Amino acid sequence: MEDQFIKAAGLIGDATRAAIMWTLLDGRAFTATELSIAVNTSPQNISMHLGKLLEANLLSVEKQGRHKYYRFSNKEVAYVVEAMANLIPKPEISSKTKSENYAPVKYCRTCYDHLAGKIGVALADSLLEQKIIIEKNNTFEISPEGQKWFSGFGINIEEARKQKRIFLKPCLDWSERRYHIAGSVGTLLLNKMLEQDWIRRTTNSRAIIITGKGEKEMLKSFKIVV
Amino acid sequence: MEDQFIKAAGLIGDATRAAIMWTLLDGRAFTATELSIAVNTSPQNISMHLGKLLEANLLSVEKQGRHKYYRFSNKEVAYVVEAMANLIPKPEISSKTKSENYAPVKYCRTCYDHLAGKIGVALADSLLEQKIIIEKNNTFEISPEGQKWFSGFGINIEEARKQKRIFLKPCLDWSERRYHIAGSVGTLLLNKMLEQDWIRRTTNSRAIIITGKGEKEMLKSFKIVV
DNA sequence: ATCATAGTTAAATCTGTATTGAAGTATTAC
DNA sequence: GTAATACTTCAATACAGATTTAACTATGAT
């Protein structure tokens, strides 16, 4: 068991491969060439590294014509990379500076079963600003008006409160370093959006895409420009 | 940000350092010499590697006389190592003991020689709730009724008290972040459970599996649903 | 005071493996 | 068909950094 652990650590530990993992963390699938550009090395070299990661089952690949799309092969792998990302000392967030060069997917991925990524954070901001939820010493609470809002959105808050799992809690996303909404309310929000086809899950990835409808509705309900 | 990620990955990625991390995963603090033995390399080499891990704040050290005790510097580090441990292909689990969120390492692992992981924490909770043990300014004590309970369980508390090692102490588990029971009482509990075939050790792993009998008994004695 | 143990530091060496260069196959475009 | 793109394979090379050799400091035991 130990040697397998060491092998896994070594695989991720190489600088080029770590850069690959970092790139893939946004949930998208990348082609070998894209990765070689992102990581700034030769295609041959990328090919070799991808081979090793595939062999170890850290990545999986899907062939489409002459392209090969690589992604994390399972969520456990993503967790390792995320856990590592969390080791990084947190920078202060200069909110709008980096929003330009956002990769489409770092953009709106699901953090387990709630919305994280840029959209998740923007959503939390919006709900806070509209006083639908209120921050109170590091927890979130739902205001009386908020309760109305949620039921208008088709979410029964009383129902959510009954569930055993944590009701509503701020969840710090590694990629955004800002709070978004987890807990049963987070899940309900996510599900409602899926149900209404504002967003769609992609297969084999934690990334989520926003539909045309979602784009309009998010602007309307949350003043979020996606 | 990316370069810091790569640096962190590289630090854990070296075989010797990975072995150090693996060793430290059980939660104990180790001296440099102990680590050099566990990892099978020279003291000089260990010293060099520990220096790097310290420098990067992945480990912290405490000096005691001529010994230096190394441990993970924070839970984030432990999470990375645990997440990596979870990458390792799981040994097959008998259907009886399978439970939904089975993760070999987190689930029910031994922390040195007592029960940690999910079960260990639940157990401590149960014993506290039943007032078998009592928390008193960050230590655990056994109540008079508790003493009876333990002897009913086949554990002689007076015997345990005589041992030189720490009798009973709360131990913070990395994976659960809640206290469980260490000390000689913790060991006795663990051994008793093994003896009664409530749980079984797996070869080559810290994980422990719960037997069908254990499942029933734990529910009965501790109201723990496994 | 002396010796053993614990750990560190510095320079010399060694080695695994990442990278590169050259040549190959497969697919799409024209 | 030919050319271009996407990716792989193999042998040759380069090099970071792990390990070793050796000499050192600090603490504890007798």
Automatic annotation (TrEMBL), chains A, B:
One of its GO terms (biological process) is response to lead ion. Pfam families: HTH_20. SUPFAM superfamilies: Winged helix' DNA-binding domain (SSF46785). InterPro entries: ArsR-like_HTH, HTH_ArsR_DNA-bd_dom, HTH_Metal-responsive_Reg, WH-like_DNA-bd_sf, WH_DNA-bd_sf. Signal peptide: none annotated. CDD domains: HTH_ARSR. GO terms for molecular function: cadmium ion sensor activity; DNA binding; DNA-binding transcription factor activity; lead ion binding. Residues 1-92 form the HTH arsR-type domain. This is ArsR family transcriptional regulator. It comes from Flavobacterium cupreum.
